[in-house]
Amino acid sequence: MKAKLVNVFSAERFGGNGLTVFPEADGLSTGEMQALTREAGQFESIFVFREANGFTARIFTMEEELDFAGHPLLGLAYYLHQTFGDRDRHAWRVRLNRRTVELTSAWRDGRFTATLAQGRPAFLRTLTRDEAGEVYAALGLDAGGRRNYPAEVVSTGLPYLILPVAGGLERVAFQVADLSPLLASHGAKFIYVLDVQGFEGRTWDNRGRVEDVATGSAAGPAAAYLHKHGIALGKTLSIAQGRFVGRPSRIEVELVIDGMELADVRVSGDVIKVADLAFAA
Predict the structure, then answer these.
(1) Quick check: helix, strand or coil at residue 222?
(2) Fewest C-beta atoms under 10 Å: which of 79, 86, 94, 255?
(3) Which residue positions are annotated as catalytic (predicted)?
(4) Residue 183 phi/psi, 5° resolution?
(5) What is the rounded distance in angstroms from the CA atom of residue 196 to the CA atom of residue 17?
(6) What's domain 122-268's superfamily in CATH?
(7) Regions of the chain with pLDDT less than 50
(8) Contact 151, 124 (CB under 8 A)
(9) Where are the domains of the chain?
(10) Known catalytic residue: 261?
């Protein structure tokens, strides 16, 4: 079985977030896709199915299938452009388990950039001070980051608990074996610790064992949070991630404003091919 390894949110090989694209997914079972993702060893993999009216994709982490994710879809846009594209710029529609997403892909000045329209963000829940304090404590942080801004659950496809801090991202240290029950009690799937001064974030699997390099599905909610609370000025911003795992990355976000409302969040990043892979059938 053929596959492609790409780096997302980087214009240079061996930077950004790695992704394995499996373009020959027809006939694979869910168990086989999960096993291939673990074998590939990247944080996420995406499996592509060609249909008469377009493309379907399924996304897996090392632990589970996701209904939505950011950097796998940007990496998929690279594969679609390189395989089926005949112009410098293309638009794609891809059906996921629960929604259809719109992607754009473009070559410009020798760099490839992909964009994912994440749609209107949903602000699902604002934590009380006591509730937020429990989350800060679970990560070994004091409550200083919540003096001015609340902890809030925001989603553009995956619900993230945005936990604001004022610097000090290096001080995060998991104090619980698994964040999942605490996050679930607030309607969140994952946590995103966001430095509201430096526009930099960190996120992990819920056991704190693996830190993600650059998270497109979190960057949209983070940008929406910054906009809602008057921290982000203007319609474009850049979020840094990956510094603590030695792969500094940049996630570009465009905020689409309709009247007084935030109508769409568009997350972009560079993508570059690393290698062609082959797995035994």
Answers:
(1) helix
(2) 86
(3) 44
(4) -65, -40
(5) 22
(6) Diaminopimelate Epimerase; Chain A, domain 1 (3.10.310.10)
(7) none
(8) no
(9) 2-115+270-278, 122-268
(10) no
State the residue for tokens 């979190």: 218
Taking the C-alpha atoms of residue 30 and residue 246, their distance in angstroms, rounded to an integer, is: 32
Evaluate whether 2-115+270-278 and 122-268 have a shared fold.
Answer: yes
Number of residues assigned to the chain: 281
- The C-alpha atoms of residue 217 and residue 234 are separated, in whole angstroms, by 21
Supply 161's token pair: 């608990």
Bridge partners (DSSP) listed for residue 253: 237, 267
Burial call 244-281: b when 16+ CB within 10 Å, e when fewer: eeebbbbbbbbbeeeeeebebbbbbbbbbbbeeeeeee
Residue that has been written with the tokens 């982490």 in this structure:
61
pTM above 0.90, yes or no: yes
Whole-number Å distance between alpha carbons of 21 and 11: 18
Give pLDDT tens digits for 60-108: 999 999 999 999 999 999 999 999 999 999 999 999 999 999 999 999 8
* Token pair 């905020």: residue: 255
**117, two tokens:** 């329209």
Q: Which two tokens stand for residue 4?
A: 């492609």
Give the three-class secondary structure for 125: strand
User: Phi/psi of residue 252, each to 5°?
Assistant: -95, 135
Q: For residue 200, which amino acid is it?
A: E
Neighbouring CB atoms inside 10 A of 62's CB total 16
Q: What is the pLDDT of residue 144?
A: 56
Quote the pLDDT of residue 281: 62
